[in-house]
Specification:
Blueprint (H helix, E strand, L loop, with lengths): L10 H15 L3 H14 L4 H15 L7 E2 L2 E2 L3 H12 L3 H14 L4 H14 L2 H14 L4 H13 L3 H14 L4 H18 L8 H19 L4 H17 L4 H13 L3 H14 L4 H28 L4 H7 L1
Antiparallel strand pairs: 1-2
Helix pairs in contact: 1-2, 2-3, 2-5, 4-5, 4-6, 5-6, 6-7, 7-8, 8-9, 9-10, 11-13, 12-13, 13-14, 14-15, 15-16
């Protein structure tokens, strides 16, 4: 079952929800907690309500508590969570939610309770709520290495490598020698970059070859003596493509080549440099960017020299020329 929004609440539940918001506005967070518990019993898939509940509980309890552990389990939570844990195992995850929330009312950042909440939401197919449960642990106890690895792995399973990379970085902050987190950060950052640029590890080679062929055709046309007007027309079309996807390496390279033909050294430098960043270290693009930067500097000096000759008494130009 998917998460629902306020507009999907039953009329009687929505009335309670609005009442809880009024209580929050009046800083009556304890009362809001009681109302929100009732809201979530009737609408457990209402994620916004659970988020507000957790914030209110944090205010009432004073924030995260230091958690002592016995054999890896938070002390004081084992017995009270045994019943809802049993319900989750038996397939009654929905019935376990109110019992877990009773524990979280006392300590909203409790790692074991939130971890069990994650399991219950996962069983119910409420994936955004499952993430919220582990993110609550991350907010209150980011040093919990095991739970943070679990969160990163869940993000990866949900095809969100960028979020996974951020979690791995947090792990390394607290556990600098965690080699799995260090490697996870690097791998996920690379995957996120490919995902952002519409690449994938299983990319269709025919599609890549077609793009490569298209790029070569454009470069040949650019070198074949097109008029300035034709080059500018091609540039404008490429700029439109670039605005749709700024991480398309083929379009970025083409724009660099077109700007080079137009002798727009500044833009040529910018696009060749960006292409180098997207290409995972294409030396040819880095060389091109350097060449364009040199030409830009030369042109800037020529323009400045001409300006000084035309306006020899301009103090600002004289200062720049020196």
């Amino acid at each position: 079952m998917p998460e629902i929004t306020e507009s999907e609440l039953a009329p009687n539940v929505k009335a309670l929800w609005l009442k809880s918001l009024s209580a929050v506005q009046m800083n009556n967070h304890g009362y809001a907690v009681k109302i929100l518990q009732s809201v979530l019993k009737d609408a457990p898939e209402f994620l916004e309500g659970r988020q507000v509940l957790r914030k209110c509980e944090a205010v009432v309890t004073g924030g995260p508590k230091k958690q002592s552990k016995i054999f890896g389990v938070s002390s004081g939570s084992g017995l009270s969570l045994s019943k809802p844990a049993g319900l989750v195992k038996k397939g009654d995850a929905r019935g376990a939610l109110p019992l877990i929330e009773e524990e979280l009312e006392k300590d909203p950042y409790n790692t074991e309770a939130n971890d069990l909440l994650f399991d219950a939401f996962t069983a119910l197919g409420l994936h955004a709520s499952a993430v919220f449960a582990l993110e609550t642990i991350r907010k209150g106890h980011p040093e919990d290495q095991k739970k943070m690895h679990k969160l990163a792995e869940y993000y990866l399973a949900r095809e969100n490598p960028q979020a996974a990379a951020e979690v791995y970085r947090d792990i390394v902050k607290h556990h600098p020698t965690d080699s799995a987190a260090i490697k996870g950060d690097k791998d996920c950052t690379a995957r996120a970059s490919m995902q952002k640029g519409n690449w994938s590890e299983q990319a269709d080679m025919k599609s890549l070859l077609a793009n490569k062929g298209q790029t070569e055709d454009l470069e040949k046309q650019a070198r074949s003596g097109l008029t300035r007007e034709q080059l500018e027309e091609r540039r404008d079309k490429l700029v439109l493509k670039y605005s749709e996807d700024q991480n398309n390496l083929f379009v970025v390279k083409d724009l660099g080549a077109i700007y080079e033909q137009l002798e727009d050294w500044g833009n040529a430098t910018a696009f060749y440099s960006w292409g180098f960043s997207l290409s995972n270290g294409d030396v040819a693009l880095r060389t091109k960017a350097g060449q364009m930067q040199d030409r830009f500097n030369e042109q800037e000096m020529k323009d400045l020299e001409a300006a000084v000759k035309a306006n020899p008494d301009d103090p600002e130009l004289k200062a720049r020329w020196k």
